[in-house]
Amino acid sequence: MRSQLNLLVQKLNEIEGLRKISLTTNGVLLQDQLAELVVAGLRHVNVSLDALDEESFKGATRRGGLDKVLGGIDAAQRAGMVVKVNSIAMRGLTDHQIVAFGEFTRRTGIPVRFIEFMPLDSDGNWNTSAVLSGAEIVEMFSSQIRPLVPIERNGSSPSTDYRFDDGIGTVGVIASVSKPFCDSCDRFRLTADGQLRNCLFGQDSGDVRALLRGDASDESISQMIQSAVATKKRGHGTDDLTFLRPSRPMHAIGG
Ligand code: SF4
User: Fold this and answer.
1) Which residues form the Radical SAM core domain (predicted)?
2) What is the distance in A from the centroid of ligand 1 to the CA of 14?
């Protein structure tokens, strides 16, 4: 029997004009599900991976399974998928992983993108001193591996990407805290429970599921989406004293 995920990928693939479907995953079940996902039409996968040694990985995820995640990444790459690794940039965690991640991207050719730690953690432990900035990460790779050279920005990607100066290995930084890029953000999300989110730091801004289950017209769904886009704020406001943590942590928004 096909899983709900495979079915979703297959149905999305049938939509004319949809150019890219990408799965963001913790990678634990990737290897097991890969063959069916490929058949369903998935070609892009982003794997969240915060550490490359078992102990740090356990500390970051509160479970083991690093070997399964690495096995999934390897299998996806061998199946011809475009694979990227996303990693949180956190002081006390990432600074001990620089050499390992540098060797990883240079060995596999898989780009690793570091996302500054944002106040979207489920424990509410975020504080500014735990944020390892994108600039610090670039400096660490350059001093501990080889100098990094910027790559020209591609489309609306929030990542600033670099390649090592010998052309082998790619590192990206998403400096969402130290250098916010909200003025050029075109992200808009539909959560797994059918809620619109016009910003990671916003609140739910429309209940599409309720409209669909209530037999609403396409027109009213379209109006809800347009109004959610129109109320997108100019910035996330984490540096504002009135900032309120969003009610949903990152894992409940969908990356
Ligand atoms: S507008 Fe919201 S989702 Fe977009 S970059 Fe800023 S914080 Fe992130």
Assistant:
1) 1-148
2) 29
**C-alpha angle with apex 203: 197 to 205, nearest 5 degrees?**
55
In whole angstroms, give the CA distance from residue 88 to residue 90: 6
Q: Is 185 in the pocket of ligand 1 (CB under 6 A)?
A: yes
Q: Whose CA is nearest to atom 7 of ligand 1?
A: 236
The token duo for 1 is 């029997």
Q: Ligand 1: does its nearest atom lie under 6 Å from the Cβ of 78?
A: no
**Cβ 208 under 6 angstroms from ligand 1:** no
Report whether pLDDT(92) > 80: yes
Q: Over 70: is that where the pLDDT of 1 sits?
A: no
Nearest CA residue ID for atom 2, ligand 1: 199
What percent of the chain stands above pLDDT 70?
91
Nearest CA to 97 among 29, 162, 51, 150? Answer: 51
pLDDT, residue 245, reads: 65
Measured over the CA atoms of residue 42, residue 44, residue 50 and residue 51, the dihedral's sign is positive
Domains and their CATH numbers in the chain: 4-179 (3.20.20.70), 186-252 (no CATH)
Q: Tell whether the model's pLDDT for residue 26 goes beyond 80.
A: yes
Residues above pLDDT 90, as percent of the chain: 67
The predicted pLDDT at position 84 comes to 97
The answer to whether the CB of 201 is under 6 A from ligand 1 is yes
Chain centroid to Cα 106, Å, comes to 21
Q: In the predicted model, what is the mean pLDDT of the chain?
A: 90
Cα(202)–Cα(232) distance, integer angstroms: 8
